[in-house]
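Standup notes, protein team

Yesterday: finished cleaning the Leucobacter manosquensis set.
Today: Transcriptional regulatory protein structure.
Blockers: none.

Input for Transcriptional regulatory protein:
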Amino acid sequence: MRDGCDPIRVITVDDDPLALELHRAHLARAGGFEVVAQCSGARAAVVALTRSTNRADLALLDVTMPDGTGLDVLRHVRARGVRTDVIAVSGVRDVEVVREMVALGAVQYLIKPYTYPLFKARIEAFREYHRRSLAAGRTATQHDVDGMFASLRTAQTTPLPKGLATHTLEQVSSALRACGTCTAHEISRRLGISREVSRRYLEYLAEIRRAERRARYGARGRPQTEYLWNAEVERH
């Protein structure tokens, strides 16, 4: 049996090479994790997860891939007795998909795009869950079980960057999604907030790749910065 001092072995699965490299970089930054395989599709993920020499503690699993889904992967590997823990990492927000992923053993569901602090919170929560499960051994007490579940719940309260509020972020996101492309001034008029506040939230959305910045050229003067809602991230 491996002990709590060993690095947590991770398989990352995503059809976007950039996402795979981002996962690797974030895991390295968090420390204590070892990427043992990177897979760009569902078939490759099934092979990696069922290979005994590659047995991992955790899989970061995308939901939508060209050759299958994360659900397909989990159904196949669970049928073969693979008990690797899974954190789903996807832009898919369909509640039924989330429910199915959880039913198949996903311990966390991280929605793209995400910030490093949010990723770190999820991965640190898993680290504590993993540590507690190893410490409990084969027979857990009620205290052990409560501690394992509590460690996973601690990641759900990760705050936004200082000065940003969840409710306002949702309002700005909804307004930008509705209009497709807007400037900070246009969003501020829609929501009745100051232009500076509007710009701060739009910049945050751009930082986490929920929005894209573009230059809007008018008849005269400097070009304005407009923000385009990035619908693509919600399809992965």
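Follow-up from PR in the comments: The first helix runs from residue 17 to 30.
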